[in-house]
Amino acid sequence: GHQLIGCLPPIPLALMFLTALLEQKIVLTSSRKSVLLSATTALSAMLKPLNWCHLLVPRVPPELASDLLQYPAPFILGMPSEDPGVMELIRDLEDDVTLVDLDVGRVILAPAFAHSSELARGVKNDAAVARKLRSQVLFLAQSLGTVFGPCLDSGLWHCDLPLRSNDQAQTTSTSTPFDRLKVVCNDFIEELLAGVSSCCYWFDDKKTGASTSDPTVLFDEARFFRIKFIRHDQRFQPLFGAKRDSQHLAVSSGDFDLIVELFLRCQSMNEYIGTRKREDMMFFLG
Known about the structure:
Radius of gyration: 20 Å
Strand content: 5-15%
Largest sheet: 5 strands, mixed
Strand order of the largest sheet: 2-3-1-4-5
Structural class: alpha/beta
Helix content: 40-55%
Order of helices and strands: HHEHEHEHEEHHHEEHHHE
Number of helices: 11
């Protein structure tokens, strides 16, 4: 984690995080092979409590690089820039691949971001919608990057706080900058997931509720969007207090509707819903 946050400023770091959260194709490149392993491992840790459910190769062998780039599903690939032929492949990446250059400290968002992804609720994912979705991701990354910044107390990216020394930053907390970053990422994802259980409906064919077959779980997307609107509008009160105020991480369903749409289609979201217990949701016995 320390190596990753030393390579990327807060806003590019937030952009990479969001791209992974929305399960896009990502290529990380660096001339330092050890950094690739650290960065891919740290990125997976930032997605908790969700899991990356797709292809992840921290260091791609040169002889497999071309084939893996043609993988049709989402992936995270670490490609050493000094390996033979890698730079040529990077210059000719497909339009749906996001490039993370850890040596330069930049993230180049895929021009055709999520263009081939399926969006429901009557949203036709054409080129215009894909451009709007890409703009929403860039805007959200900029906003989230302002929250990431104060967590990275290494002093490297604190140009806005010139009077704060590294010694002062070290004494503010015993946790590391990456530990604090993971807390913010977790809070943001928990805010995205808020209300999921209340939108799930469990149907069991057996009247006893002890069916050996897999139950049917339906998800009310309209209710989920309504919850996002209410939480962003700050019209909710957490029961028994909250561990921290997460209202500043609430996503507006008006400004980021396409992001929420795409998030609902992610495999990690389906896996999260599938791990909920019957007691956590409305259930019906047939």
